[in-house]
Amino acid sequence: MSNLLDLDFDMIDGSTTTLRALAGDGRVLLVNVASACGLTPQYADLQHLHATHDDLTVVGVPCNQFGAQEPGTHEEICAFTEERYNVTFPLSAKIEVNGPGRHPIYAALCAVTDEGGHSGDVRWNFEKFLISNDGSIVRFKPQTSPNDVL
Questions:
Q1: What is the pLDDT along the chain (150 residues), one digit of tens a residue?
Q2: Which of 40, 43, 58, 107 lies at 20 to 30 Å from 77 by C-alpha?
Q3: Which residue among 37, 63, 78, 110 is the active-site one?
Q4: CA-CA-CA-CA torsion sign (86, 89, 94, 97)
Q5: Cα angle 8-13-18, degrees, rounded to a multiple of 5
């Protein structure tokens, strides 16, 4: 399998990139996100981490697979994140993180086990994956504060 950092990844603005290109010389924190979730306030902490850590790039991944909590268009998602949380970190196009339509990046990520022993499907919005430049991955539960991943 290709290194997940080098897999094509569609962004919310219609461009295509890779996680390696987004991260530059830093680490990547990949998070599946949703605008209408009880965990949505985590956007504020994610933005703070992105803005204050030069060695970290937060990438938000909108996903509507959990209770249809991300039903908006790309334009609506961008407007919501900018207006409510002043988000400046990159957002991907809305993707599937589970099931037969799962994005290849998430196919690799879902094989990782978190500290509680969970591997497999993403459980809910705001599940986090910290990916280093060498491709090593640490997985965090959705309820884990973004401030506790570094």
A1: 458 899 999 999 999 999 999 998 889 999 999 999 999 999 999 999 999 999 999 999 999 999 999 999 999 999 999 999 999 999 999 999 999 999 999 999 999 999 999 999 999 999 999 999 888 999 999 999 999 998
A2: 107
A3: 37
A4: negative
A5: 20
In terms of Cβ atoms closer than 10 Å to its own Cβ (0-12, 13-18, 19+), residue 139 is buried
In this prediction the pTM is 0.94
Active site residue 63: no
Domain of residue 72: give its range.
Answer: 4-108+123-134
